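STRUCTURE REQUEST FORM
Protein name: Olfactory receptor
Source organism: Chrysemys picta bellii
Requested output: structure tokens
Priority: standard
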Amino acid sequence: MEHGNHTEVTEFLLLGLSETREVQLFLFVLFLLFYIIILPANVLIILSIWGDPHLGSPMYFFLANLAFLDICYCFVIPLKVLSHFLSHHKTISYRGCLAQLFFLHLLGGAEINLLMGMAFDRYVAICQPLRYTTVVSRGVCWALVGAAWAVGFMHSFIQVIPIVRLPFCGPNELDSFFCDITQVIKLACTDVYVLEFFMFFNSGLVTMLCFILLLISYGALLVWLWAGGSSKGMSKAASTCITHIIIIIIMFGPATYIYCRPFRSFPLDKVVAVFHTVVFPLLNPIIYTLRNKEIISAMKRLLGRYGLWRGK
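Status: completed
Returned output:
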């Protein structure tokens, strides 16, 4: 479609991860394996938590919502990537690109804020246990989850609106396997220096600030726990904090690399992007289930109810 003296871009060409057919088929099988594992694992976590009265605490409520976010992630990027591995013409429409970008940052923003809510839950549970049921009530839990989604929506909306207003009239090749702001805005037919700075602040610095705050909060909780003794309850709380720290590092590490720097191409970009968009959602259920005996027991009871588990 013509727009002035230029052709308006209606689709973007994704260069993908490799041009070699054998490598693409190998990655297809690998990504499909991840996808097959992610969905059942997260669905099992949600069903186990919601169906087991022993897992009625706010911590498990937040974990079920975290698993739901990871399920949503599966439908934003991995499905499209799988179809591209089997296609010779790897394109995504302009509107499809914007939609992918919007939901990617919506879910990412919601997950960051949900992790902040989980940190608040752990603080109250450890430092003010007598007030825990009053402060972190079911209404407060729903409010924190709703706020996480609302903030994620606002963050994503702020990201997408400036890109919608950009003119795309020439190059349409994205050196990636999905749409993200770091790649898309470089194709605009205008100076995007100010916009890059704005995106860097909105995604990069905010992500870094949340990362630092979460590490400080959990670090302070661990120091407080270790200073308070080594009782069974304290050890369990410390183990939970360590699990949350692992999740935070895994999530924020790649995000910090991607957004806390100038929007330029670097050799490790695609590797980090794969880890951030495909591998990371798989790690949530694995880390939480392996380090939490209550969830494992609930899963066994749920599977045993349907004859899928016969162990003790």
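Reviewer notes: The chain is about 70% helix and 5% strand. The CA atoms of residues 254 and 276 lie 6 Å apart.
Form closed.
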